[in-house]
Every structure is written in C-alpha cells, then in structure tokens.
C-alpha cells in the first residue's frame, strides 16, 4: 500500500462511526461520579480547584469503559491511584527542566511498556502521563500537592463506590463473551450445511476463554450459567465438523446428507437459543421443531458409522447446553466444586501475584524489534519533545501538545494515525460547539460546571462509536471546565486547536521516523502458526496412539497454543495490509493462499480430534510414527520459512506411504485426516516456495496490481466528482 492510499484509509477509519451497542445507563452513572467531585469542589473551594479535581473522576470513569474482565470498580480504583501518584511525583520534579524532563521520559517509557500487559493497562498508563504533564498548573506547596493528589484519587474512589452501589448488568461483559462464542458456533453450523469444509474462526472462543478466567473472589459470585457452556462449545465444534465432512461424516449426497443438514440446522437453533439465554439471563427457548429433529432413532436413523457417532455426540452435547442455559436467570452463587483451586476455574491473578506476571511480560518485550518497546521509546521521545516545544511557544497550557500526542499513540501505524486524525477533527468540532455556547451564556461557573458534566456523560455514551465522536464532547468538557475556572475563550480555544494539531503531528512523525512495521515479520508469524499447528496435530495423533488423560491434556494445550499463534498471525496480517510499505517476503496473494492452507490443516486436526478414543482404548503404535513425522516436518518447515527456504514434508509422505492396510481399516478417520493435512501442507508449500527470481517477479506483479487498483480507484473518484 502506498503512503497516499494509506493516509486516505487513515482518514476514513478515523472518522468512521462504529456499530456498537450504546450503554447510556453506564454513561449516566459515570457522569454522576464526575458530578460528585465537581459539585462539592465548586461549592466548598473554588472553580479553579473544581476544574483540577475533575481530572481523577473523569479519567477513572473513562478507564472503566475499556475492554477488561476485571471488575470495573477495581479498574476505577487503580486508575485513580495511578493518576494521583503520577500527579504528586510530577509535582516534586516540576519547576526545573533538569529534573522534570528525565522523570517525564522514564514515566512515559514505562507507560509505553505497559502495553506488554494489555491494551487496558497501556491506555490507563497513558492517562497517568497526561496527569503528570498537568502538574505544572498545581499549587506551589507540597501540602497542596498532596491535597490535589488526594482529590484525584477520590475521583477514582467515587466511581468505584457508584459501581458498587448501583451495579448495572453485572457480569454483562462475561455473558456477552460467552454468548458470542455460542453464536459463532451456531453460525458455523449454518455454514456447514452449504459448505461442509467451511473453516471456523476461533477468536470468539478465545475471547470467551479469556473472560472465563476469574480471581477466587469472582469465582464465588459468578453465575452458574457462566461455568459450563464454553467447554461444551469447544466439544460441539469438532462434532459439527465431523458430521458435515463428506469423507469421514455424512455422505456427500442422498438421505444421509439431508439428515446431516437437518441436524446442523437444529444445532444452530439450539446454540442461538442458548446464546440468547446467557446474554439476557433468561431461560432458553428453542423451537419445538428443532428439539424433534435432535433425536437419533435406533431403528430408523439413516446415518451410519462415524457420521452416526458424531450425530449422537452432537445431540448429547446440545442437550447439556440447553440444560445449563435453562438456568440463565439464576442469580445465586456458584457452588464451589471440590479439588485444587486451579482445577476448579481458570485462575486470574490478583494484584500481588500479578506483579511477577507483569515483570515477565515486560521483560519479554525489552528488545529492539519489539513493537511494544519501540512504542515506549516513541512515547518517551514525543512526550519530552512536545513539552519542550510547547514551553518555547508563546502559548499558555503548553501541556496540551504532549498530552494530545501521548493519548493518540498506539503500538501500530494505523491506529496511531487514525486516532490523530480523529482527535483533531473531534477537537475542532467540540471546541467550536463549546465556544459558541460559552460566548452565548456568559460567565457562570455553576452553569459551566453542569455543562461540563453533561459533556462528560455524552463522551462516555459515544466512547465506543468512534474516537472522533467521543473526543468531540471531551474537548467540549475541557472548554467548559476552563470557562468554569475563569479562562477566557479567546485565550484557550486557539491554544487548544494549535497545540492539539502539534501533538498529533508529533505522534505521526514519530511513527514515520521510528516505525514498527509488521509487513517484514509476516513470514515469521506464518512460521510460528505452522509450528504450533504441527504440535497440535501431533498431540491429536498421540491421543490415538496411546489414549490417556495426559495426552488429552497435551492436546488441549497444543490447541490453545495453535489458536494463539493464529490470532497473532491475523493481527499482524491485518496491520500489514494497512501499512505503507512494500511486501516483505510475502505478497498479499501468497499470504492469503498460505493462510487458507493452514486453516485447512487446522480443520483436518479438528476432524481427527472429534473421534479421539477414550482413555484406556487399545493403542495404535503406527499412529505414533505419524505424529513424530508431522511434528518434525512442520518444525523444520517453520525454520525454512523464516530463512526463506522451501519447506519439505518428506517424513510425513514416507510414513503415509508405508501405512499398513490393517491400520487404515482400524483408524479410517486418522488416515483421512492425515491425507487432508498432507494436502494442506502441499498447498502451503506451493504458496510460499519460490526461487529468488520468481519471488522478485511475484513482488513486481503485486506492485503492478496495486498500482492498477489505485488507478482504477482514481478513475472512479474522478467520475464520481
């Protein structure tokens, strides 16, 4: 993608309205938290004090809207404490550049490294950098600075208390994640009716698993309905694939295929009903016709062999899902199962045990080629440079420039540039709106305080519809706060616009000078996915070779690692398609073909997983040789792909050619799955195996196609104009 096209996409993305479910009650509660701080401060102290005190309540409230599975009150308290601490520490170093600039650089670097833990930690950490930059406006005594820090922390406490007193849809995000996973499996069942080899995107299941990890205190209050359906969805998925596959499941045509389509359609209805039940907290309601279909008649069932086994397993699992979803309205506590704590639920560490986890995550990213490390370096440099430039300019409130830069910067190119555009557009609109109202209403501190709270509520309401639209009311909120403090609009408005533009330009320039492109990393990401898929396939085969509980546990761990590698590839590929750099080792067509091949490889492993024998079943030693060959070949091919060499599947081909006829009859599903995997590996080799000359020619063809597409797009735009 060229820079011109990338910038056009950035502008379009930054101004796009995202389809998201609005949560006005949450926004109202959070705005009330701001009002609780602003009102008493305005009444008991002064407008200037109230404007400064509002920082903690507003920022802590905004943090609770981030996508996280920890309780909102914990996020609000953590944000409030972090803001208060950064404010006080910043004051201790403020007043002299020789002390404040090193502190600002170190703090901004640490905030950038917080992305190693997750996006929520990174965003909240960035707000603490903003609060440190505002310390230049604080009173000039340590006692007053402590008082200011306490008021900022009180804003987080106020938000946490409101969340505790007025819970709104508690466990709602967890219910949504689980419901989305079931709905995704239902949609997959419908697609399998028409395309028996349709791939499945495991991202909703990964999100549901992440949401299922809870602390011990959360586990004691988690609704019963959030316990079982995720595991059922994981088991239903391979049963659906095994039933639909024309080679190991229902026949491609005839009565068996019609019966499979009926079962798949009924499964989709049942899963949708379970998803609605979990999302709304009401008992599941399934159409009677669907429940009638989900009966496997011993005498008149047309399905036979592995297809019938898959159908029976599917019907049993769907019955369990309905039984659990039927308690969707249960509000009681979850009974605590016996056994070790880590066996009862997925453990999420509490604050103290989280410290070594954070340290390990940050240590893994402390390398020059890490996107998180490069983001931290950019953040520190831009915060310091923006502060220096703003102090040299003949403008007040110079901290707006570095704050604007810090708040729009993200570890990837597209989000940084899109947020910079969105922040400028939102700021212009919000400042114009608030300025017009301020001029029309005249000086009235109480009225401006009310308008600031209303603007905060509107910003919270629109926070998930697009950064530009939320930023519009955030800018209005700031203007009303400054007007409440007695600042004239002639002084604040031009400064805010100019400094926001400066901060956005610095953020964009920093990424262009010190980028972290994903495009050159695509071959490595693809190799990681291939190696993880190979370990998953080998683990499935070992469960056939020696059916034990230990091998089943290994299979599950390998499957999760494979999904994580696929998610890393998807994220990297999505970012690479938006970057203005030429293909680095893989053209877009090669990447798409390789992705489809690995999806087919993963689907074949899932088919074999659906028929894994129970623990204690007879061993199949010939399958162990195939597992060893599969793992060795995929690991070696991953190394070859990183080094831009052609992969080879000689061991797998040799084992399959020597496969005894008795083993084929004993394990037809394994043989069919292995053949599908071999075909997928050959397709992968075809996609990525090129001589250097052919690779250069492919890259040139890709660039010509891109230029032709841009020319056609320009012609279409000209005709539209």
TrEMBL record:
**Is Cell membrane set as a keyword in this record?**
yes
This protein's major location comes to: membrane
- Which keywords does UniProt give here? Cell membrane, Membrane, Transmembrane, Transmembrane helix
The record ties this protein, via InterPro entries, to: Memb_transporter_dom, PH_domain
Under the heading PANTHER family, the entry gives: MULTIDRUG RESISTANCE PROTEIN MDTO (PTHR30509:SF9), P-HYDROXYBENZOIC ACID EFFLUX PUMP SUBUNIT-RELATED (PTHR30509)
Q: Where is the PH domain?
A: 1-12
TM region positions: 74-94, 100-117, 148-168, 376-400, 420-438, 468-485, 497-517
Assigned protein family: Belongs to the YccS/YhfK family.
Highest taxon listed in the record's lineage: Bacteria
- Protein name as annotated: PH domain-containing protein
Q: How does it sit in the membrane?
A: Multi-pass membrane protein
Q: Does the keyword Lyase apply?
A: no
Give the matching Pfam families.
Answer: FUSC_2
> Basic and acidic residues compositional bias: what residue ranges?
692-705
């Amino acid at each position: 993608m060229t820079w011109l096209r990338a910038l056009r996409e950035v502008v379009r993305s930054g101004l796009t309205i995202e389809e998201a479910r609005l949560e006005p009650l949450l926004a109202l509660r959070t705005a009330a938290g701001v009002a609780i701080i602003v009102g008493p401060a305005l009444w008991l102290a002064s407008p200037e004090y109230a404007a400064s005190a509002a920082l903690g309540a507003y920022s802590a409230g905004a943090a609770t809207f981030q996508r996280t599975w920890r309780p909102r009150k914990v996020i609000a308290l953590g944000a409030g404490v972090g803001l208060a601490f950064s404010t006080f520490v910043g004051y201790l170093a403020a007043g002299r550049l020789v002390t404040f600039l090193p502190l600002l650089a170190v703090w901004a670097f640490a905030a950038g490294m917080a992305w190693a833990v997750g996006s929520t930690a990174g965003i909240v950490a960035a707000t603490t950098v903003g609060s440190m930059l505002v310390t230049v406006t604080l009173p000039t005594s340590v006692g007053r600075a402590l008082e200011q820090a306490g008021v900022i922390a009180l804003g987080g406490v106020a938000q946490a208390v409101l969340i505790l007193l007025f819970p709104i849809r508690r466990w709602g995000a967890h219910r949504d994640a689980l419901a989305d996973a079931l709905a995704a499996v239902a949609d997959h069942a419908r697609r399998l009716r028409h395309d028996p080899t349709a791939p499945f995107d495991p991202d909703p299941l990964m999100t549901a698993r992440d949401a299922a990890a809870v602390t011990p205190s959360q586990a004691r209050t988690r609704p019963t309905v959030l316990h079982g359906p995720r595991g059922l969805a994981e088991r239903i998925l391979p049963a659906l694939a095994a039933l639909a596959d024309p080679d190991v499941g229902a026949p491609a045509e005839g009565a068996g295929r019609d019966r499979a389509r009926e079962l798949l359609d009924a499964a989709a209805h049942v899963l949708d009903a379970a998803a609605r039940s979990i999302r709304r907290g009401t008992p599941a309601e399934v159409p009677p016709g669907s429940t009638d279909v989900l009966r496997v008649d011993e005498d008149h069932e047309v399905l036979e062999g592995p297809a019938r086994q898959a159908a029976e397993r599917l019907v049993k699992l769907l019955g369990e899902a309905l039984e659990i979803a039927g308690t969707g309205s249960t509000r009681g506590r979850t009974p605590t199962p016996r056994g070790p704590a880590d066996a009862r639920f997925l453990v999420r560490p509490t604050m103290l045990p989280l410290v070594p986890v954070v340290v390990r995550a940050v240590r893994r990213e402390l390398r020059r080629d890490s996107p998180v490390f490069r983001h931290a370096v950019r953040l520190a440099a831009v915060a310091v440079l923006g502060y220096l430039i703003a102090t040299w300019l003949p403008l007040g409130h110079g901290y707006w420039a570095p704050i604007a830069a810090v708040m729009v910067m993200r570890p990837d190119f597209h989000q940084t540039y899109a947020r910079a555009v969105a922040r400028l557009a939102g700021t212009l609109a919000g400042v114009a709106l608030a300025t017009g109202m301020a001029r029309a209403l005249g000086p009235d501190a109480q009225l401006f305080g009310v308008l600031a709270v209303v603007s905060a509520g509107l910003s919270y309401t629109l926070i998930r519809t697009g950064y530009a639209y939320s930023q519009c009311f955030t800018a209005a909120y700031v203007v009303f706060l400054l007007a409440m403090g007695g600042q004239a609009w002639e002084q604040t408005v031009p400064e805010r616009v100019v400094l926001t533009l400066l901060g956005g330009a610095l953020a964009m320039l920093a990424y262009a000078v010190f980028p972290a492109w994903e495009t050159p990393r695509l071959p490595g990401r693809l190799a990681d996915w291939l190696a993880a898929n190979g370990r998953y396939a080998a683990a499935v085969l070992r469960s056939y070779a020696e059916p034990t509980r230990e091998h089943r546990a290994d299979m599950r761990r390998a499957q999760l690692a494979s999904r994580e590698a696929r998610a890393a590839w998807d994220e990297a590929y999505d970012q690479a398609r938006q970057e203005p750099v030429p293909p680095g080792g893989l053209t877009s067509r090669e990447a798409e073909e390789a992705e489809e091949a690995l999806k087919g490889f993963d689907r074949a492993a899932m088919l074999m997983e659906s028929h894994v024998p129970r623990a204690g079943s007879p061993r199949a030693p010939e399958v162990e040789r195939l597992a060893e060959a599969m793992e060795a070949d995929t690991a070696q091919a991953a190394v070859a792909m990183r080094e831009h060499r052609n992969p080879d599947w000689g061991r797998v081909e040799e084992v399959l050619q020597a496969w005894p006829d008795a083993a084929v009859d004993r394990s037809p599903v394994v043989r069919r799955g292995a053949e599908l995997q071999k075909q997928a590996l050959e397709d992968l080799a075809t996609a990525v195996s090129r001589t250097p000359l052919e690779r250069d020619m492919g890259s040139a063809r890709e660039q010509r196609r891109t230029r032709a597409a841009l020319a056609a797009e320009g012609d279409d735009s000209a005709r539209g104009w």
